[in-house]
User: Fold this.
Amino acid sequence: DAGVIQSPRHEVTEMGQEVTLRCKPISGHNSLFWYRQTMMRGLELLIYFNNNVPIDDSGMPEDRFSAKMPNASFSTLKIQPSEPRDSAVYFCASGFSYEQYFGPGTRLTVT
Amino acid sequence: QKEVEQNSGPLSVPEGAIASLNCTYSDRGSQSFFWYRQYSGKSPELIMFIYSNGDKEDGRFTAQLNKASQYVSLLIRDSQPSDSATYLCAVGHYGNNRLAFGKGNQVVVIP
Assistant:
């Protein structure tokens, strides 16, 4: 099994630009989670999906963030427009029941 | 009060000793408890989970759960330099797949 796949692994962009992060979950997992990790705030849940349906998006910071899961094998997290305070590592995780398995993450730097 | 707390600062242990990590949680309805290991620059990796009161052993790792006192701990026996990492405690609730994470404890094993 290839594990959770995320792309890109690193993204550097200028303030105001649109950023799209991509995730392919482990086949057979029915839940998908987007997290953000910073030194100050630790690991924060942004949104999660069950069977491709968004269940809890209370962690999404503001309207600049949006996430989609058009099918069981693909999800995107979009930030538009990006701001320097969005700089962080963004993880996608997939799972079944309570267990979650993380992808390698995308390190986002907004200048 | 934070949902999941890991208050100890960095933990330094000599190689071969036992490392002990503690985590407390605020929601008495919590049902599932996890320990993740995160190496610097890498993603969290699930190493242990426990659902029932008592101890659960897996190799050199032992997870201990006490629901009455609302704490979960992780013991690492015969600590190795490869155990040097940040350990994240995570707690799940009945009825949804969301996990709440603590901020983590750094462990440094000194050869």
In short: Chain A has a mean pLDDT of 94.
